[in-house]
Write a structure and sequence with these properties.
Length: about 110
């Protein structure tokens, strides 16, 4: 579902069983993967975003940051900037408006 980005706000990327605090200090980044039975060249970008954006926000935000409302606003705003660059990012909220949403599509 499109709302699965919310799962990232409850996850803690640094809560790794068996890893010491010293080892955690060595972590310098993370990654978001996309795979699935229904993903191909026609929908990989729209499926990847905003999910990868949500993962990035979780990785680089404070561990105490868990407010999905604030995150939803930022992700929606970022999605619109991606649409302005002709990246067909999937919407994360049902009643979202972005003036660039259809800029990459010829409606004639």
């Amino acid at each position: 579902s499109v709302m699965d980005w919310k799962d990232t706000t409850t996850s803690e990327p640094y809560d790794i069983p068996g890893v010491t605090p010293e080892q955690l200090e060595l972590i310098i980044g993370g990654e978001a993967c996309m795979w699935g039975e229904y993903v191909d060249n026609t929908n990989i970008l729209s499926r990847t975003f905003p999910r990868a954006t949500a993962v990035a926000e979780r990785l680089w935000s404070s561990q105490k940051q868990r407010n999905t409302g604030d995150m939803q606003f930022r992700l929606d705003k970022h999605r619109c900037s991606m649409c302005a660059r002709d990246i067909p990012a999937e919407t994360i909220i049902l009643r979202s408006y972005c003036p660039f949403e259809f800029s990459g599509y010829d409606m004639n």
